[in-house]
Structure formats: structure tokens, C-alpha cells
UniProtKB/TrEMBL annotation:
It comes from the Bacteria. It holds the Pfam family adh_short. InterPro entries: NAD(P)-bd_dom_sf, Sc_DH/Rdtase_CS, SDR, SDR_fam. Belongs to the short-chain dehydrogenases/reductases (SDR) family. Transmembrane segments: none annotated. CDD domains: SDR_c (cd05233). This is SDR family NAD(P)-dependent oxidoreductase.
């Protein structure tokens, strides 16, 4: 498969661990330069070092991507160090505590929406002028099985990931005539270090537990990264506005 990614400049958020780290290394293996953005400084720096070991330019930016100042730093560093932005991977995200709607606290709701939806919106808005000026670009989001159904996670996480799906589709339509493609993967169960908070009541976990048997095999982070690289690459040149389940058939059950 010809990816056309050699020499491309890629931003990966949440790139210090899990799916993000696997994507950083997969892009580096294709010869792309990578900016690793993550709130965990040690992990961001380690992932960037691993990418450099593959012979590409790599840099790390540490901070909370829900902050406009951090987003500005990510874009500025990509332009100054990598020389531009060809691909944005909006991967950073957090889980909720599986709470049902009546049990979701204001703090949980606001935190999930800020990190899972507002942060990728801010980054997408920031890169679009640069991609539009060049007449091409690819943006890939990490959505979720919870983007496709109501029984995969708690209310706050599910709402945030449904919002991601809307952001993907709207942006794809708005910018397809400018050579910019916007897609997402929807991972099912995947072995990462993302943490789940302690539920505040039994309502959410009890309801969700009825559907847990449908999850199937738990994926490796590299399997999710391979799908991200595909959507970012020339091999998916006519794929736009798609939400690709990478879930061993969970979405088909």
C-alpha cells in the first residue's frame, strides 16, 4: 500500500501513550515527521525520542490541550520545527466514570467535554487555515464505539464522542472542496493505559453491563494506529467524513 506519508508533517495528540504513541511510531516508520502533544511530559518526550530513532524529525509539546495557549504552542512548534502541518491526529481523550445521566457531576461533564470535544475542535480550527492555504490536508480523530451507540460508556463520555462524530462530518463537508479530508476511527475495546473513574452509582455500570459481552476481542493499540495511518494516507484519498469502526465487529452486533 502506497501511503504517500514520507516527508509529511504530522501532529499526534495524546501521543505519549496508548493509541497515540502507536500512531506516532507508525507515522515515523512511514518517514513522516511527528509532533507529539501530551499532558504527560515524560511520556511525550519518550515517544518523540523513539520517533527520532526511526530517522525522522520529532518534537514534543507538553500541556493541556483544552487550553488555547497550549494549542497555539502546538501549532507554532509544528510550523517552526516540522515546517508545516499535513496531518492532524486528534487522539487525546479521557474516560468518564460510567455514570448515568442523573449521576453525572458538573465537574465531570465539563472536563469530558473540554478534553474530548473542545480540545480537538480548537486544534482543528487552528490547522485548517494552513491546510487550506496549501490546498490539501488530512485530519483523523479518535472517536469511539461510544460515538455509535448509547451502551458503550457513561453519559458524559458518550455525549462527548457523539459530538466528535458531528465535528468530523461537518468539517469534512465544509472543507472537501479545499482538498482537506476529515475522518475518524471508532475503537472498540483496546489495551491502553486510559483509566476509568469510580462510578458514583450503580445505575450506569448496571445498564452497561448488559452489553459488555458484545465487546469481542480486545485490540492492540497498533491495530488502531494502522487504521489512523490508513485514513491519513493517500490510500484513503477518496475517504472523507467516514467513521471507521475498529472494533472486531462490535458495531455490527
Amino acid at each position: 500500500m502506497e501511503t504517500g506519508l514520507k516527508g509529511k508533517k504530522v501532529i499526534v495528540t495524546g501521543g505519549g501513550s496508548g493509541i497515540g504513541r502507536a500512531a506516532v511510531l507508525a507515522f515515523a516508520a512511514e518517514g513522516a515527521s511527528v509532533l507529539v502533544a501530551d499532558i504527560n511530559g515524560a511520556k511525550a518526550l519518550a515517544a518523540a525520542e523513539e520517533a527520532r530513532a526511526a530517522g525522522v524529525t520529532a518534537e514534543a509539546v507538553v500541556g493541556d490541550l483544552g487550553s488555547p495557549e497550549v494549542v497555539d504552542e502546538v501549532i507554532r512548534t509544528a510550523l517552526d520545527v516540522l515546517g508545516g502541518v499535513d496531518v492532524l491526529v486528534n487522539n487525546a481523550g479521557i474516560m468518564d466514570d460510567m455514570s448515568a445521566t442523573a449521576d453525572v457531576t458538573d465537574e465531570t461533564w465539563e472536563r469530558l467535554i473540554r478534553i474530548n470535544l473542545t480540545a480537538p475542535f480548537l486544534l482543528t480550527r487552528a490547522v485548517l487555515p494552513h491546510m487550506r492555504a496549501r490546498g490539501e490536508g488530512s485530519i483523523v480523530f479518535t472517536a469511539s464505539e461510544a460515538s455509535l451507540r448509547g451502551g458503550a460508556s457513561g453519559t458524559a463520555y458518550t455525549a462527548s464522542k457523539h459530538g466528535v462524530m458531528g465535528l468530523v462530518k461537518s468539517t469534512a463537508v465544509m472543507y472537501r472542496d479545499h482538498g482537506i479530508r476529515v475522518n475518524a476511527i471508532a475503537p472498540g475495546g483496546t489495551a491502553t493505559d486510559i483509566s476509568i473513574g469510580t462510578p458514583t452509582s450503580v445505575d450506569g455500570p448496571t445498564a452497561l453491563g448488559r452489553y459488555a459481552q458484545n465487546i469481542g476481542r480486545v485490540a492492540d493499540a497498533k491495530e488502531q494506529a494502522a487504521a489512523i495511518v490508513f485514513l491519513a494516507s493517500d490510500a484513503a484519498s477518496n475517504v472523507n467524513g467516514a467513521i471507521l469502526p475498529v472494533d472486531n465487529g462490535w458495531a455490527a452486533v
